[in-house]
Amino acid sequence: MNTHAFIMAAAAAMLVLAAESGSAARVSPDDPSAIRGPRPPRPPKPWANKKTKTDRDGDALPDTLEQSPVPFGGAGTVTLNPERKDVVIIIDYVGTNGLNTPTPASIALILGSLADAPVKGANGKAANRGIAATVIVPAQGYNAPSTTSIGTFAGGNYDWSDVDAIKTNCIDRMGIGAAPQMYHYCLSCHNYGGSGSSGISRNNIATYDAFRMGAADFILSLQSLQSQALYAGPTAGTVLHEFGHNLGLTHGGYDHVNYKPNYISIMNYHFQFFGVVYGIPSAAQYWYSTFYSRPINEAAIKEKKGVGGPAKDFGTQVNYPPVVVFPPSVAKKVDWNLNGIIDHGRYPLLLNFPYDNELTWLVTENNYKNLNFTGGGLVTGAGAPVAGAGGRAAVPAPPRFTPATHDTVCQEFTPELHSTLAADAAAQARGVRMNVTRTPAATIYTLGE
Q1: Bridge partners for 421 per DSSP
Q2: How far apart are the first and last CA of the chain?
Q3: pLDDT at 388
Q4: Residue 198 CB burial class (10 angstroms; 0-12, 13-18, ≥19)
Q5: What pLDDT is attached to residue 33?
Q6: Which residues pair with 6 in a beta bridge?
Q7: Which tens digits make up the pLDDT trace of 331-374?
Q8: Which of 21 and 433 is assigned the larger pLDDT?
Q9: Is 277 helix (H, G, I), strand (E, B) or coil?
Q10: What distance in Å separates the CA atoms of residue 197 and residue 150, rounded to the nearest whole number?
Q11: How would DSSP label each residue in 29-95?
Q12: How confident is the prediction for the chain on average, in pLDDT?
């Protein structure tokens, strides 16, 4: 059976009648009926932090902290800007042989991606656009074998106690016990809890609103591949994906539904490792979604509509299976069923396999209008750091590749890493100028001018 015949047969088999209830009103994403009505739900109002008189750039760090270099223990000082959004990420690592240490190329991609963010700082000046990131890597990693599996699962929950202990050790290694709560902590390791996951963040998943508050801790776990030059792209994408959760972003934008072809964001598993497809000739970019796309009703696909005007420079992909990449532009006239023509009628088709087997509305968001910089209320620039801060102690873990359970967890059970890497990732990294400051305690990376 050819691909077209397969996906049409599968769609016909899974066709269900849309619920008669539902409206275009704002409905909580916690309500699963919201995406099953005859009309798409309206997304919640933007969550982005508001600018205030004491925080003019809206990055949750007070201007008084950002006006002069911040003492940061053995790492020296960290320079912030009260007129531009700042984030500070410590990337700690397990082992002394460097196998879990991200490469400068991956850090360059992280800095460049955040600098590209279409967000405004104080006064709306062009010079204050983007997010100025500071990445700090300790000079010494946590003294344990690089292949150590960090933490355990108990009753289906991941226990963060080991991460808390290593974080406390990192604070001691760098001498930053007196530093203000202005940073996110990332632990780079071989794996956690014996899983094959690429990472996990520490959001509170009790409700959608609680999740949106963000978190302060996350894990990067690429089976020690993060130290290899070929994996600079997947490493950067995974750090940014998990950090996106720390900023309150979800796998689906409007909700936690994954693999939406109209959600063109590295928060979508489709784009985490190799970036979103942008431009002609196309190039991978490690970006969050820059627009709210047209909602797609899987029960009544309209090929002529595509993803909507803002997607004119973007491509996307769908796992039918196999994975099919749709090059730019997917703004209009997308041959979703691969029959070689643009159908004028409507038809049912599952577009977010393998997340679920239901035909629903696929609703997204503009990620950059929904960034929460507070780290769950723990990244505010106040006081000294609290070991173990970053959300509740345990996060439920779904079984590997059982998307029908609608996991609302930030646990990245993505497909296995493979050797077909983004060819231009290294070239992009070379195009990013970095300032590198080394001290006996750490190396600090910031974006160069």
Answers
A1: none
A2: 55
A3: 44
A4: buried
A5: 83
A6: none
A7: 999 999 999 999 999 999 999 999 999 999 999 999 999 999 99
A8: 433
A9: strand
A10: 12
A11: TT-GGGGGSSSPPBPPPP-PPPP-SS-TT-SSS-HHHHTSPEE-GGG-EE---TTSEEEEEEEEEB-
A12: 85
Per-residue confidence (pLDDT) for residue 325, from 0 to 100: 93
Side chain identity at 289, as an amino acid letter?
A: S
What is the phi/psi pair of residue 78, to 5°? -120, 125
Where do the H-state alpha helices sit in 213-343?
A: 232-246, 269-272
**Token duo for residue 393:** 């102690």
pTM equals: 0.88
Helix H or strand E segment including 285: strand 283-285
Q: Reply yes or no: is the peptide bond before residue 281 cis, omega within 30 of 0.
A: yes
Q: What is the pLDDT of residue 414?
A: 52
Residue 203: what residue type? N
SS3 content of the chain, % helix, strand, coil (to 5): 20, 20, 60
3-state secondary structure (DSSP) of residue 199: strand
Return the amino acid letter for 109.
L
Q: Which residues contact 441 (CB under 8 A, 6 or more apart)?
A: 73, 74, 75, 76, 138, 139, 173, 174, 175
C-alpha span between 25 and 181 (Å, rounded): 38
C-alpha pair distances (Å), 76 with each of 79, 136, 138, 329, 440? 10, 11, 12, 47, 9
Q: Within a 10 A sphere around the Cβ of 399, how many other Cβ atoms?
A: 10
Measured CA to CA, the distance from residue 162 to residue 169 in angstroms comes to 11
Angle (deg, nearest 10), helices 232-246 and 104-115: 50
CB-count burial class (<10 Å; 0-12, 13-18, 19+) for 230:
middle
Burial class of residue 344 in the structure, from the number of CB atoms within 10 Å of its CB (0-12 exposed, 13-18 middle, 19+ buried): exposed
Distances (CA, A) of 343 to 4, 88, 300: 13, 48, 12
Residue 31 has pLDDT above 90, yes or no: no
pLDDT at 384: 54
Residue 214: is its pLDDT beyond 60?
A: yes
